Amino acid sequence: MTRKTPGSAPVKSAATVLVSGSAGFVGRHLLRRLSEKNRASIGLYHAHLPEPMAHALPVFGDLLRVEHLPPALDGIETVVHLAWNQSFRSRIEDALWGAEETVLASRNLEMLKNLIQAMREAGTQRIIFVSALGASRHAESLYLQEKYQAELMILNSEIPEKIILRSALAFGDLKYKDRLVTAIERLMRFPWVYPVPRSKEKLAPLHVNDLSEILLRLIDMALPEPAQILEVTGQQELALEEVFRIVSQGIGKGTHIPLKGFLGEALTPLFERLRKDTTPSGPHIRDLLTIGNRRDTATIINSPLQQTLPPGAYRFQDAMQQTEQRLLQ
Domain coordinates of the chain in residue numbers? Predict the structure, then answer.
């Protein structure tokens, strides 16, 4: 694989990239960017087939079955690992696996263990793991605890080049049904009003196109050290109330009245339960709010590559305004 010196523009490489979780929200966008760059990629999928696109080959593989992985990794130098069960579920009772009561997050670690083993045997050089801001051994969220454990597994592995990318919440627009906008939209299904839970922290969501561009850059970027931890957020910080207001305007419910403070906090779980569908459609808003929104100063200082990442190009309100304009057309 052709590399470059740190700080210069990435050099296109002909090596094929494997993307796990390729049918997911971030995976679809990353495959699309790779396709636009005429870069060959393999989209590893399990439950859902990725959408067809040029230069992208969908390959079925169960990460819980290590024997499925060697054919997919043949000739692969870089893996972008996105696959994750029960993303953002922060409470342990939301992450149980049937009658066995096996925590789903342990399935994630088992999948990663199999992937690391297969990559080592195939001679794959680089893994890029998308983690989450706030990942920590002591995090209150089960999701963030498991992301942290996954980071440790990768950093302690024998894979020659390892990149941990801790990201803020990724958003797109209504067309792509990202988790943040979907969770907020769920609270606005009822007429006239919607609740806003209390939150002291501001959100710095990152557009999925910006996240994909960062991942695209990291695929070929030369590493000053074999292991790198990077943190990324969106270009602006917004109060939760402002995020809700922007979404309400974007989905055509700008006339609804927000219920804030103690009342909004109390009504949020009630509104989430009283939805039209009976099938869970994603994490609750409180689960999403456990994800961090600030980069750690020490991480920025100790990551030489941090300053070489492309700046964000998409603002949250611009994406929602574009959605609103499409609805009016």
Answer: 17-328
Is the Cβ–Cβ distance between 56 and 80 less than 8 Å?
no
Rounded Cα distance between 113 and 191, Å, is: 47
Helices H, strands E: what count in the chain? Answer: 11, 13
Which is it for the CA torsion 300, 170, 135, 154, positive or negative?
Answer: negative
CA distance 5 to 112: 30
> E strands within the chain?
17-20, 41-45, 56-60, 78-81, 96-97, 102-103, 126-132, 161-167, 170-171, 193-195, 206-207, 227-232, 257-259
User: Which amino acid is located at 179 in the chain?
Assistant: R
How far apart CA 267 and CA 88 sit, in angstroms, is 21
| Chain segment 105-117, per-residue pLDDT in tens | 489 999 999 999 9
Query: What confidence score (pLDDT) does residue 14 get?
Result: 57
Q: What is the pLDDT of residues 169-208, one digit of tens each?
A: 999 977 777 899 999 999 998 899 999 999 989 999 999 9
Look at residue 89 and tell me whether its pLDDT is greater than 80: no
Amino acid at 277: D
Q: Are 189 and 251 in contact (CB under 8 A)?
A: no
Q: In the predicted model, what is the mean pLDDT of residues 306-314?
A: 88
| 96 phi and psi angles, rounded to 5 deg | -95, 145
Query: Does the predicted TM-score (pTM) go above 0.85?
Result: yes
What is residue 265's DSSP assignment? Answer: H
Higher-confidence residue of 211 and 297: namely 211
SS3 259: strand
pLDDT tens-digit readout, 270-292: 998 875 554 456 789 999 999 99
CATH number of 17-328: 3.40.50.720
CB 196 within 8 A of CB 264: yes
CA distance 63 to 68: 7
